[in-house]
Amino acid sequence: MRETLQGVLRQTRPLDRVVGVDNGSRDGCAAILTEAFGAGNVLTLPRSTGFGEAVAAVLDRLPRTGGQEWIWLLHDDCAPHPQALEALLWTAASDEKAAILGPKLRDWLDRRLLLEAGVTVDRSGRRDTGLEAREYDQGQHDGVRQVLSVSTAGMLIRRDVWDLLGGLDAGLPLFRDDLDLCWRATAAGYRVLNVTDAVAWHAEAAARRRRRLTASTDHPRRLDRRNAIFVVMANLPFRSLLWSVVRNTFASLFRTVLLLLAKQPANALDEIVALASVLGSPRRLMAARKARRQGRKEGYPEVVKLFTPRGMAYRRLADMVQSFLSGAGPIDSAGRHHAVIPEASRDDGEELLTDAGLMQRFFGNPGVLLVLALTAVTLAAERSLVYGGVLGGGALVPVVGGASDLWNLYTSGYHAAGLGSGGWAPPYVAVLAVLSTIFLGKTWLAVSVLLLGCVPLAGLSAYVATRSMISQPLARALLAASYALLPVATGAVAAGRLGTAVVFVLLPAYAAFAARVFTAERRRARRAAWALGLLLTVGTAFVPLVYVLVAALGGLAALSFAGVRRGVGVSLGIAMAVPLVLLFPWLAQLAADPGRVLLEAGLHRPSLADPRLAADSLLTLNPGGPGVPPVWATAGLIAAALAALLFRRHQMVVVTGWGVAVFGVLVAIVVSRVPVDGVAAWPGVPLAFAAIGLMVAAAITGHRVVELHRAGGARRAGALLMVLVACATPLAAAGLWINEGVPGPLRRGTPEVVSEFATANSTRGESTLLLRSTRDGRLSFTLVRGRTPLIGETELPVAAAARERLSAVVAGVASGRGGDDALTLAAFGVRFISVPGPVDPVVRRALDSDPALARVSLSATSGLWRMARPLGRAFLLEPDGRRTPVEPVRAGDGALTFAVPAGAVKRTLVLAEPAGAWAAAVGDSALAAVTVDGWAQGFEMPPTGGRVTVAYDTFWHGLWLWAQLGLVVLAAVFASPGARAPEAAEEYAEAPAEADKEEVPV
User: pTM of this prediction?
Assistant: First the structure.
């Protein structure tokens, strides 16, 4: 206060009249004002008076002089330079349109630090000074220039303009009142200037929580954001206002989510409440717009020129997201003149650096160049898969349907697909549903990005994950390229192994987070544990074996680190518990068939794996199967990892990497030798683990190569040889992949599984039985309900009794043994039998000879037969064995309704669904459930018949889905890299506090 008063009284251009306003201070500041200005020049107002009201109260008491008058506004925490007023008035005299002028503001404590040299806003009301965080004043912004707004701390304004505009809005007691006044002045045809020759030092006591606000009960952050939105919406023309409402709504929601993830719930609440308070008070907004209607539209072109450029607004959004991802939390600059970034986060002298430009920074990044190069290699190698029809083949089910279909599959308690299933859908369906939603409902695009784009994605993942291990970006890029082009990746693409592709991308992230769990300080380790748990959940959903491998390695690491670092066991327990909790029902279902742990998402076919994989393939990380290069293609990576054993430094890291590699190879040997359902499993994922171990070991070589190169002589030659050997792996793999392409079985243009005729005539959920001849002469079958199965539907659990019964019936029909097999097949809801060509003559004769079947078509590509008397999805079983189809009168929301006529006693309503948690009722009377033919769900019908409602009990399923959603959100919040932002006042804790005062010299 005293320094402010000294600055006012020592002006080289003396003030004609000085008035101070005391807003009910309780610390003796009123006496200081009276001593400085005299008792007649101090006005006392209530403590709740805002800044604009205080200025208006003074001007009402000051008579006009008759000539041109200037009003100089100052805050009690703003000390002007002795020549500030003279510089402002000199500039005003040289520009007749200048109506509002403001000084250059510097920080109160660090007198070199720039706070403001003019202010503008973007179209969302975000304040922008055009200054870098903690930018020092070296004259780089000097000069007089037109700006959108200047602060009321040092504002010089013509009194006639003040009267014309109505002064500061009394409804904005704090924050953004200056922006509103200057906006209206610009729209009225006046100029707002920033004069850098005039300097003032501002403490920002209110914004920095240095004093308790009495003009408002809201938090400064909430008040600032609310006033920002209000000012923008009150001054925009109507058409721009409509866009502003949409823009601010989505921007505030996005920022709220970021703040919540950054563990700043108070800031998030302020953000969303500020928006709601403006939109929830339309009368106040309409009144403000009515008061500003004159000249608003005509002057808007001049105002919009002074807005933040669109490119800078997007850059600030990117900086906010980058700040969140780096762990600093979204930048909070509410009510401040500059962005608040901890000084420790910037290197000394960094404020002198110039921005090289977004494009130059982007394309000059080795990681970006790596991804672009790998993308080019991928496009060249996958040239046959880039465009065309439906993607499918190998382990990949033809990709059909959209995001809504996947969501319906995952959330349904009962799945009317195939034989029907009340089990849990594979959890990777939810992951694909999320990605498909992001890609505007395009499931094919989500699958294409994950599977066809796994090579560049894996390269990016490996590049980012190794940043703490390898300081040289080029060495990181080379190692990441070697990993991305391993045979596991190319083999996964060729065979359509979506699960392996996803895990291959995630493995480097697993390694990075696991290292942080074991080596970082406790808080970061816990956050990394939650992140590792979430990513491990995703990987386990696609490939259950991943969890077993990570758990085994984590257990060994915990034993090693338990006595060295406290809390490691708890962090590791969190990481291991997250997948178990989130996937619990599905994992419990999987435990009933342990062999499926060795499988992954998709189909399990004999042609996709080599049951006699050679030892040299396993030792060179080659999993066999279609699309893999020769065994020598990975020699460079293995040689680099072997070279790391020759160095004495970091031996523990090298040994750890080789230990993981040996572990992965051993597991791969076991996996490749253990058949599942008579078919060998593919060892791609264990070998990917081995590759991660070799990457860790080879990373040490990158450090030593630089040292050997600097040593000169023979060591330099050895370093060059090591570089050439290391480059051999990605170059050889890329060249071979581009040359050979993707041989399949993955391909574009996969034909529809069910013919158009069968689909068009199966509108009530009837099934089509697909019969296929295998290479060994056996016959396989698939039951499809009216359309091509969605991803995940082929992995739904099926009741053993229903599967065994259907297998026996199909064998009878295909063998032509006669009997009532075809009639029994109709009880499964089958209406058509489809046989892809060329049709086996034995099968053709068997189907043609069955009187219950009628041939529809037969060609070189396929054959189609239909049931002579289909039963549909439900039928009545009479006491004498007769079967009468019953058509549902309504189907929806998981329930079926049938109109059953009156009839004989002891009739049974039979569904073409496996027996389970079904319930049926006629009116309020529940029907007794029975099992028919050892597998089908039936209900005893009363002789009176009636309207029967049949539904499957999904209560617990739905309850768990909501619980799972809550757990995922909770884990994501714990894993988020945001940090709690310290209160701004702490930065200025060493400054002497002046509490409970809002004196305003005028």
Answer: 0.76
